[in-house]
Design brief:
The chain is α/β, with parallel strands linked by helices. It contains six helices and five strands; from the N terminus they run βαββαααααββ. It is 36% helix and 9% strand.
C-alpha cells in the first residue's frame, strides 16, 4: 500500500489526529472498537490501534483488510471509519440488531450498521458517512430514519441530544 511515506509522523491518543498537515482533526479513541483490521503498514497499524481496533497479523483473521481499501490520502478520521464500516460483512451486525435476517434497502442497512458500530452519530456525521458533501442540503437521513421507525417502531432509533442511536424493537 505504501501509505506511510505520504503521511506525517504518528501522534498518539489523546492528541489530535493529523493526516493532513494543513488540517487538524479531533477524534474519538473508540471509533473502531472491536473491529479486527489487517494492514501490513506499521503506520496504519498504529492508527487503527489508537482508534481501538484489534490489529491482526493475517488477512484471514480480519474483519477488514485495510490494505485492499482504496483510501484517498489525506483521510479524515470519519472517512477512515466510514471506509472500514462499509467494508465489513454487515449480515451479523444486522442480525444482532433485529434478531433475524431482515430485508432493508442499501441506505437503510448502512445507517443501521453505522449507528450500531459507532454507538451513535449526529445527522451531519451520518450525512458525511453516506457520502454527501458538507454543504449539501438533504433530508435523506431524516427520511430513512423516519422509514425505519415506521417499520420497527418509534423507539428503534432514538435521538438523544442530537445523537441518533439504535434503541429497541
Amino acid at each position: 500500500m505504501g501509505l506511510s511515506t505520504a503521511l506525517p509522523a504518528r501522534i498518539s491518543v489523546p492528541a489530535p489526529f493529523l493526516l493532513d498537515s494543513s488540517q487538524l482533526f479531533v477524534y474519538s479513541c473508540n471509533m473502531l472498537t472491536g473491529i479486527r483490521i489487517f494492514t501490513s503498514d506499521p503506520y496504519w497499524r498504529g492508527i487503527v490501534s489508537d482508534l481501538n481496533a484489534v490489529v491482526v497479523d493475517s488477512v484471514n483473521l480480519a474483519d477488514v483488510d485495510l490494505d485492499s481499501l482504496e483510501l484517498n490520502i489525506p483521510v479524515t478520521p470519519l472517512e477512515l471509519k466510514s471506509a472500514v464500516v462499509s467494508a465489513l460483512d454487515n449480515t451479523k451486525i444486522l442480525e444482532s440488531v433485529f434478531g433475524k435476517i431482515v430485508s432493508l434497502s442499501p441506505i437503510q442497512r448502512r445507517i443501521v450498521v453505522y449507528l450500531k458500530k459507532s454507538g451513535g452519530m449526529t445527522a451531519d456525521e451520518l450525512k458525511s458517512a453516506l457520502g454527501y458533501a458538507q454543504d449539501t442540503t438533504t433530508h435523506t437521513v431524516d427520511t430513512v430514519i423516519y422509514g425505519l421507525r415506521k417499520l420497527f417502531g418509534r423507539d428503534f432509533i432514538k435521538n438523544e441530544n442530537g445523537i441518533f442511536k439504535i434503541g429497541g424493537i
